[in-house]
Every structure is written in C-alpha cells, then in structure tokens.
TrEMBL record:
PROSITE patterns with a match to the protein in the record: RECA_2
Origin species: Rotaria sordida
Coiled coil: none
Single GO term (MF): ATP-dependent DNA damage sensor activity
Top-rank taxon: Eukaryota
CC annotations in GO: Rad51B-Rad51C-Rad51D-XRCC2 complex; Rad51C-XRCC3 complex; replication fork
SUPFAM superfamilies reported in the protein's UniProt record: P-loop containing nucleoside triphosphate hydrolases (SSF52540)
Database matches in PANTHER family: DNA REPAIR PROTEIN RAD51 HOMOLOG 3 (PTHR46239:SF1), DNA REPAIR PROTEIN RAD51 HOMOLOG 3 RAD51C (PTHR46239)
Gene3D superfamilies: P-loop containing nucleotide triphosphate hydrolases
Principal subcellular localisation of the protein: nucleus
Limits of the RecA family profile domain: 17-201
Compartment(s) of residence: Nucleus
Protein name: DNA repair protein RAD51 homolog 3
Alphabetic keyword roster: ATP-binding, DNA damage, DNA repair, Nucleotide-binding, Nucleus
Amino acid sequence: MALTRKSRTAMDVLKSNIEYISTYSKKIDDMLNGGIRIGVITELCGNPGSGKSNLCTQLCISVQMKYGVTSNETGTVIYIDTEGSFVPIRLQNMAMAAENHYKNENKNSMNTNSIEQLLKNVTYFRCINVAELIACLIQLKQIMTPERNVKLIILDSLAHPIRSIIDGDHLTRHKYIVRIVTMLQKLASENNCAVVIVNHMIAKVESQKNEAYCAPGSLSSQKKNIYTHDLS
C-alpha cells in the first residue's frame, strides 16, 4: 500500500518558509515573532538616541552568524546611510564581542574567517538626498547578484532625504516615500532578503484635546499602501 505524506495546513507551510534574523534581544525578537523577517520590510521608529542605529549595527553582525539566522544561511549586508550615523569602529567592536562570546561557548558561529572579512561583507553607501537614494536603489538591482548573497538591506534613515525636499508639498513627499519603499520591497521579495528602514518619531498636536504626543514618522502613515512590520 502506497504511503502518502502527512498533510499540513496552509499556515504550517507559511511558517515553515519564514526566515528571521535575530536581533540578539529576546524581548525584541519576541515582539517580532522571531526577529527581523526576511523578504519583507521592517520599520524601526524611535526618538533620537533610542538605539535604532545600534540595533542596525547589531543586525549587520547577526546576519553573518549561523546562530543569527533561523535557516543558518548567512549573507552579506547593504548599508545605506543618509544621516552619517554609521560608525565602523562600533561595528568592529560588536563583532569582536560576539566572536569572543561564541568562542567562550565553544561554538563556531562566524561564517567568515576574520573580523576584517566581516567588515568587508558590509557594503556601505552614503546618500544625502532623495536623488542619490533613488540612484543607489537602482544600482542595487545590478550589484545584488547570487554571488554577493545579500541577506539584509538597511536604510538609516528614510526621514532625512524626505526632509531635504524643501520645495515639495505633502503630496510630493508622499510620492517619493511610496516610490522608495516600493523599490525596497521589490528588492526584498526578488532577492529573499530583509529590509530594515529607520524612521524618526514626530510630534503631533491634538488641538481639540490640547495635548501633544510622539507618533511614528512618515512611513507608518502609508501602511494602507505598503506592507511593513512596524517596531516603534
């Protein structure tokens, strides 16, 4: 009698195909149901100094470690810096600390031969305005080859180039946001990589209630058009 495979639900199949990059913070990973999901966009929102760029630096390391990716399939990083917040020495220090941690546990977690190689696996772009950012994203289509094996794209941040559109009205800025995020989502899905977008909190005033509060920035307001995970 022929044996058939055990059936599974559509949800089981979906979950089995989902990959995550660990943030190395259990609380954050739990909030995200496992970590930074590969294949979609995750938005990090927070006030200045809240640790958004530090978390991005940590992800640059995590994605290159076997224990940092649920599938154990490590990869390289594209880091797009629009604010000048990327600090290479911080990345180096985090990498050394992570390597020492796993050595103490007798685990060979590094997918690279040296700290130097780990740094080389992070491709850095500095974009100061919207035009440079869009040109960079177009260029990524050519450089994201199977050999490069990009598993993570970081945009730190989206807010800065959008603010540089001095003469643009709300509609113009909205169009640029949708265009940029659509390009990033396409890169994520076509290359099976994670995309992390850093955004700032903005102050909103409720005149009728006579109160002010902080709210996520421009990307979060576009959720009806763009599929993202929001961590704020």
